[in-house]
Amino acid sequence: MTHRLPRRMRLLGWLGLPLLALAATPAAAAGQYLVLPGGSFASVLPADGKAMQPQIAPFRLRSEPVTNAEFLAFAKAHPGWQRGRVATVLADAGYLSHWAGPTVLGAAALPQQPVTRVSWFAAQAFCESEDARLPTWYEWEYAAAADATRSDARADPAWRERVLNWYGRPSNTPLPAVGGDANVFGVRDLNGLVWEWVDDFNALLVGVDSRDQDGADKLKFCGAGAISMQEKENYATLMRVAMLSALKAANTTNNLGFRCAKPAGEAR
Amino acid sequence: MKRVLQTLCAGLLLVCTAGIAGAPLPMDSMYQLPVQLTNQEGQTQPMAARRGRPQLVTMFYTSCTMVCPMIIETVEKTRKTLDAPAQQRFDILAVSFDPQRDDTAALRKYAATRKLDLQHWTLAHTTASTTRQLAALLGIQYRQLPDGEFNHSSELILLDPDGRVVARTDVIGRLDPSFVSALRGLVAAEPPAPGKH
User: Fold this and answer.
1) pLDDT, tens digit (0-9, with 9 covering 90-100), for B108-150
2) Per-10-residue mean pLDDT for chain A, 268 residues long?
């Protein structure tokens, strides 16, 4: 299973079939998890809040963000997560509001587009439904640091510029389908498609206004105080951290989606 | 006691709908998230079992030496601004950030050391993933550090009998007058009830 799909996707590429062809086989694309080796990683968020690098255990990551088609199948199987039936403390009023109906995608939500307008609770529930979880921030940041040839391309100004350019795109333009270029791990769309939930979005402990780190935030966070962010020249990643820490778990936005992760040891 | 409540509720339908078992939970109730809590006696119950009485909720961990003792003290200070009958009209729930170390014995020991009156207080722990969910639901941030300590935001959150957030404060170490007055207003609407969950 693990190896079958990439080959098929490569084949589609060789045949010059448009990505839309994948729409015919959404079930086949569902839940492909790739192994990432992990290790010591220079995160923008030091593990101890000061300078210590986190250790990332080997894990599996979904090759692409969860699509509208996949989330639709989930909503049909779990009616409690359909629009209009979810408690407002678990998903705000914008939840799946671009879908034509609770179980109908419609013109504004194509099957192979990444699902957006989902809350953290909804994303968690989806991942649980395929025996997975949301990735941690470190797992996500580590996976997204790679480009096509390097596991950590962040020092390359071209990498930074590419990521930042995406941030500059207006958020009201229609989202492309999933299936962008694979990075060295085979994972796609980490940068340049949507923002993504992480499991510990409420553990980043960065003040919404990071200029405030010596003031109110010191008192706000018991212990060592707000985290002092590293790699300050990596502005693209810092923006993502700031965005994630400003979110509440019930929030939904028109460009915030997710993917799931699993422990590495698990056979699939 | 239940009969008394039901009789009261018959007369005060609007105020008491929360107390009647079976009424659907409001969509904005914190009890919408299924959370199993284990208290300092080792009893496990859904958090929604606390429905029916106002709750003052916070999160902490027992080995914390910095802000957490201040959180507990601030809750005690807040409680003691009310007169004795009013103190009987709400419960206090403190859930640990640290399920690994804060087992039932650790919670019981902490309650004893801090001389917490268990007629008012429940100290609880749950699984690591539910702890993360509960904090997210309550809007509390926390992060485990490599040395086992936690960084966390400090909040007191006031829930009405149906689990809706009525007030919250991040003022720790002294009384927050607006939070105290919200608590006072909330319990004034409640019938006295000595029952513990």
Assistant:
1) 999 999 999 999 999 999 999 999 999 999 999 998 888 888 8
2) 39 40 42 93 86 93 98 98 97 98 96 98 97 97 96 92 83 88 96 94 65 42 58 78 92 96 76
Residues of A in contact with B133 (CB under 8 A): 121, 124, 249
Residue B85 pLDDT > 90, yes or no?
A: yes
Q: Is B44 on the interface with A (CB under 8 A)?
A: no
A48 closest CB neighbour out of B28, B33, B146: B146
Across B160-181, average pLDDT: 96
Give the dihedral sign, CA A191/A196/A201/A206: positive
Chain A residues contacting B via beta carbons under 8 Å: 47-49, 52, 87-90, 120-121, 124, 133, 199-205, 220-225, 227, 245, 248-249
In this predicted complex, what is the ipTM? 0.85
Task: Give the predicted TM-score (pTM) of the model.
Answer: 0.84
CA angle A92, A97, A100 (to 5 degrees): 155
What pLDDT is stored for residue B190 in this prediction?
A: 81
